[in-house]
Design brief:
Layout: E1 9-13, H1 21-29, E2 33-36, E3 40-43, H2 49-52, E4 63-66, H3 69-81, E5 91-94, H4 97-105, E6 109-112, H5 120-127, E7 136-141, H6 148-155, E8 159-164, E9 167-170, H7 177-181, E10 188-193, H8 196-206, H9 210-217, E11 220-223, H10 226-231, E12 239-242, H11 248-261
Parallel strand pairs: 1-2, 1-10, 4-5, 4-7, 5-6, 7-8, 10-11, 11-12
Antiparallel strand pairs: 3-9
Helix pairs in contact: 3-4
């Protein structure tokens, strides 16, 4: 990626506000314009992690499965508050590359992560090679959405604990009208949706906000999976590009590849 690769481009960043600065900086470094539009807020779970599971049993866990980087951070903090550490000999599975990186940042042994399909299905395809019967697995994520991971691992005979490490909250950002007024000013408008949850937030917002509808019609969606793209179909984006890499680098590389193609 070059310093001028996103000139005449604007990219709407919809991650939680605390996770945006690095991506905004990367967009601007490449000559693009970034708009902060956080569609998700991250909040503590309704029930504290230490009330969901026995943290003093972490050493007995055979596999930690993390569905997001937020789950990694939240579990590590809870374990540390209890005066404990996650055992480095325990293996971890991560749904995506950003989650795997967060695991490694905390010294966890990432043994399973998808190579291309960054989804529950992709992780299951990596896990299927081992016998999980009788093994203790903690699946760590937000509020339970799809139960594919839990159901599959249970069917293989594993003992499952689902640990809700945080909860996602729909967030309707307070944007300046001038940001919408500039639609059409740039050669490319990109809007990144990192999850189906953020797509649902945008869909709810668009029902009462015609400017959001116009934004979608004039933007290229960068989705992190086919599931996100499918969830966003109702928004009638100008075009869709799917990035198999959910990191900042992967998202911006996806935008650059789209520019070269068109």
């Amino acid at each position: 990626m070059t310093p001028h690769s996103l000139v005449d481009c604007r990219l709407w960043v919809t991650r939680p506000a605390a996770q945006q600065p690095q991506m905004v900086e990367a967009i601007e470094h490449r000559g693009g314009v970034a708009v902060s539009m956080p569609l998700i807020a991250i909040a503590a779970p309704d029930t504290a992690i230490e009330s969901q599971v026995r943290l003093d049993h972490v050493s007995a866990v055979d596999l930690f499965v993390f569905v997001s980087a937020n789950a990694v951070s939240a579990l590590v903090k809870s374990v540390q508050r209890a005066g404990l550490v996650l055992p480095t000999e325990s293996r971890a599975g991560a749904v995506g590359s950003a989650t795997a990186k967060k695991c490694r940042d905390h010294g966890l042994n990432v043994a399973f992560t998808p190579h291309t399909d960054m989804s529950s299905e992709g992780l299951i395809s990596e896990l299927v090679s081992e016998n999980w019967s009788g093994k203790t697995i903690w699946i760590c994520g937000g509020q339970v959405g799809r139960t594919l991971l839990q159901d599959t691992l249970k069917s293989w005979g594993a003992r499952i604990n689902y640990v809700q490490c945080y909860q996602r909250v729909h967030n309707i950002p307070d944007l300046k009208a001038s940001e919408f007024d500039r639609i059409g000013e740039f050669k490319y408008e990109f809007l990144h949706l990192p999850s189906a949850f953020s797509a649902r937030t945008l869909s709810m917002w668009s029902e009462s906000e015609p400017r959001v509808q116009r934004l979608c019609r004039n933007s290229v969606l960068i989705a992190t999976s086919r599931r996100v793209a499918s969830e966003s179909a109702v928004l009638n984006f100008q075009d869709v590009s799917i990035s198999s890499d959910p990191t900042d680098y992967g998202i911006l590389k996806c935008a650059e590849s789209y520019i070269r193609r068109t």
